[in-house]
Amino acid sequence: MPKQEQLIDDVSDLNGTQKVAVLLISLGVEKASSILKELRDDEVEAITLEIATMSNISPDVVEAVIQEFHGLIRSERYVLEGGMDYARNVLKEAKEEDEVQGIMKRLESKTGTDTFGLFQSAETSHIVQFLQDEHPQIAAVILAHLNVRRAGEILGELPPGYQTEISMRMATMGNISSEVIEEIEKVIRDQMGTTLTQSANLRRGTLAVANILNEVDISTERSVIGNIEKMDEELAHDIKSQMFLFEDIIELADRYVQIIIANIDRNDLVMGLKGVEDELVQKFMDNMSSRAKQMLIEDIEAAGQVHRNQVEEAQQRIVSKIKELEEEGQVSTRKSNAEEFIE
């Protein structure tokens, strides 16, 4: 007789992560996935673990969770209307102290009371000008605090040599004391003319650099990686192992390549394969019909001589589409242990 799943019928038995899991389940796959995209990897892992273990939730629990989150959303409005202290007091009535602290930090970031949050909304040109006058270590710490897309935008506008220096410092960055963070914040406040408070969302190490380089254009990506390789080949290898590069398509399972082909622009494929290794071209052809393969060969030859920038831009669009497909769960670019199948 199959084991009956335990009914979740008391919202007070749920912790914060479990409540988020209930909320996402109630929203449906599409909306839940769009929310997960905005969270850190560790948060996504914790939440999805809870989702995977939930299968029998009472309607009363779902309703209670929705009402609680509705209250939290309203509390963000109170931040604007009644100030941070008022919002904190409202939250204290409904949440445990550690949960209140976490929510308030997120609210501080959204309302502009987070020092490093300033760089999320400031003009990129102003940030670039500011960073160029600062020590690379300060720039590395600042970029480590930003979300990867924003950090990638800023890194892409910096001089190539400075890009490499910052990336290397981020990749080798250890734990940073609160005193050092405070000193850097003081520099920011003095130079940028703000009076903001401390942030704690620090991303560092080779994964941080990999994530940021995944957001810049291919030319910048290759320049930074190439320069790091000249100075520290092992470090460059560690960074690349956590990135997904256009050349890595050759390592993907055939079924994923077929999905990619079906979802990318054909002109991008033709342009993106100009001048690449024969093995990579063959990888695509191996996953096409005979007719499609012949048409691809003819189109690549007919394209003639093209500018390197056109090729890199096409490759970037293909990589971006692959990342979208991975977020949707249609493909996997993981470079760790290969999947095992049993016939």
Automatic annotation (TrEMBL):
<dbReference type="InterPro" id="IPR011002">
    <property type="entry name" value="FliG_a-hlx"/>
</dbReference>
<dbReference type="GO" id="GO:0071973">
    <property type="term" value="P:bacterial-type flagellum-dependent cell motility"/>
</dbReference>
<keyword id="KW-1003">Cell membrane</keyword>
<dbReference type="GO" id="GO:0005886">
    <property type="term" value="C:plasma membrane"/>
</dbReference>
<keyword id="KW-0282">Flagellum</keyword>
<feature type="coiled-coil region">
    <location>
        <begin position="297"/>
        <end position="328"/>
    </location>
</feature>
<keyword id="KW-0175">Coiled coil</keyword>
<feature type="domain" description="Flagellar motor switch protein FliG C-terminal">
    <location>
        <begin position="227"/>
        <end position="331"/>
    </location>
</feature>
<keyword id="KW-0145">Chemotaxis</keyword>
<keyword id="KW-0975">Bacterial flagellum</keyword>
<dbReference type="GO" id="GO:0009425">
    <property type="term" value="C:bacterial-type flagellum basal body"/>
</dbReference>
<dbReference type="Pfam" id="PF14842">
    <property type="entry name" value="FliG_N"/>
</dbReference>
<dbReference type="InterPro" id="IPR032779">
    <property type="entry name" value="FliG_M"/>
</dbReference>
<keyword id="KW-0283">Flagellar rotation</keyword>
<dbReference type="InterPro" id="IPR023087">
    <property type="entry name" value="Flg_Motor_Flig_C"/>
</dbReference>
<comment type="similarity">
    <text>Belongs to the FliG family.</text>
</comment>
<dbReference type="GO" id="GO:0003774">
    <property type="term" value="F:cytoskeletal motor activity"/>
</dbReference>
<keyword id="KW-0969">Cilium</keyword>
<dbReference type="Pfam" id="PF01706">
    <property type="entry name" value="FliG_C"/>
</dbReference>
<keyword id="KW-0472">Membrane</keyword>
<dbReference type="GO" id="GO:0006935">
    <property type="term" value="P:chemotaxis"/>
</dbReference>
<keyword id="KW-0966">Cell projection</keyword>
<dbReference type="InterPro" id="IPR028263">
    <property type="entry name" value="FliG_N"/>
</dbReference>
<dbReference type="InterPro" id="IPR000090">
    <property type="entry name" value="Flg_Motor_Flig"/>
</dbReference>
<feature type="domain" description="Flagellar motor switch protein FliG middle">
    <location>
        <begin position="125"/>
        <end position="198"/>
    </location>
</feature>
<dbReference type="Pfam" id="PF14841">
    <property type="entry name" value="FliG_M"/>
</dbReference>
<feature type="domain" description="Flagellar motor switch protein FliG N-terminal">
    <location>
        <begin position="14"/>
        <end position="116"/>
    </location>
</feature>
<protein>
    <recommendedName>
        <fullName>Flagellar motor switch protein FliG</fullName>
    </recommendedName>
</protein>
